[in-house]
Amino acid sequence: MDARRIGDVDAQAFVIRRAGLADARAIAEVAVAGWQAAYRGILSDAFLDAMRVDAREVAWRERLARDVDGGAPAWVAERAGHVVGFVSSGPPRDEDVPLPASEIYAIYVLAESWRQGLGRSLLQTAVAHWRAGGARTLVLWVFEANAPARAFYEAMGWQPDGGRQALELGSASAIEIRYRLRLSA
Ligand SMILES: CC(C)(COP(=O)(O)OP(=O)(O)OC[C@H]1O[C@@H](n2cnc3c(N)ncnc32)[C@H](O)[C@@H]1OP(=O)(O)O)[C@@H](O)C(=O)NCCC(=O)NCCS
User: Fold this and answer.
1) Element (DSSP H or E) covering residue 109
2) Which fold has domain 5-136?
3) Pick from 129, 4, 1: nearest CA to 77
4) CA distance 111 to 128
5) What separation in angstroms does the CA of 159 have from each of 18, 45, 166, 181?
6) How far apart, in whole angstroms, are the C-alpha atoms of residue 63 and residue 50?
7) What is the pLDDT of residue 164?
8) Which residues, including other chains, have CB under 8 Å from residue 95's CB and lie 6 or more apart?
9) What's the 3-state SS for 71-92?
10) What region does 170 belong to: left with phi over 0, alpha with psi -120 to 50, or beta?
11) Which helix (H) or strand (E) holds 139?
């Protein structure tokens, strides 16, 4: 499950590996850059511009620490030793999701590495992990207005399952919809 996997895209190799606590800072940097690149026009500029890597690093350190028993794994994509993407996952937060199930909490790739297969490799790594662990359903939440990410998930075989909620983030608010992937044994 923790095997390192090499992708060779446009002669620029990347590696997918399991994330650890030491990756909290790099993940926070990719997350903040990702929010600021992908959510302009979805969330307010004021909210996005106020995002700070330091604060996100603390949150990611806590989240990664919860993976002590392997129950909430994240993986990073590295290029030339630098983290350029990540995916995090764990138990589903919604009670209406049929078990056994897991959730993809976040997936981000730095904008300069978009459309080079890193997102696909990250998501496939997480899906393969949870399939091997017995999950039959995977879910994730995405902003309804995030058309590129929705196209990505649909290309990966995910479909909207009717779930819908308003996400309140301080001064910002946006509608999220839930996507689902059914896994065969
Ligand atoms: C969504 C995201 C993770 C996808 O990662 P990526 O590395 O760019 O995706 P891949 O190159 O692996 O794309 C795989 C396939 O998904 C589809 N796809 C990916 N991005 C797409 C886009 N912008 N528009 C349409 N289809 C897209 C394509 O079918 C693509 O295959 P192709 O390039 O051979 O046509 C990345 O764009 C990202 O970080 N976006 C900003 C953050 C975000 O919105 N995350 C989701 C939060 S819920």
Assistant:
1) strand 101-109
2) Aminopeptidase (3.40.630)
3) 4
4) 25
5) 26, 29, 19, 7
6) 21
7) 98
8) none
9) CCCEEEEEECCEEEEEEEEECC
10) left
11) strand 137-143
Ligand 1 centroid – CA 99 distance (Å) = 28
Residue whose CA is at the smallest distance from ligand 1 atom 23: 148
At residue 144, the pLDDT reads: 98
Residues 73-93 have a mean pLDDT of 97
Which of 87, 88, 115 to mutate to test ligand 1, by most ligand atoms within 8 A of the CB atom?
115
Q: Residues 87-143: pLDDT tens digits?
A: 999 999 999 999 999 999 999 999 999 999 999 999 999 999 999 999 999 999 999
Q: How many CA atoms lie within 13 A of 125 on its CB side?
A: 29
Q: Which atom of ligand 1 is nearest to the CA of 115?
A: 11
Mean pLDDT of 33-40: 96
Rounded mean pLDDT, 30-37: 97
Q: What rounded mean pLDDT belongs to the chain?
A: 92
| Ligand 1, pocket residues at CB < 6 Å | 34, 38, 107-109, 114-120, 142, 146, 148-149, 151-152, 155
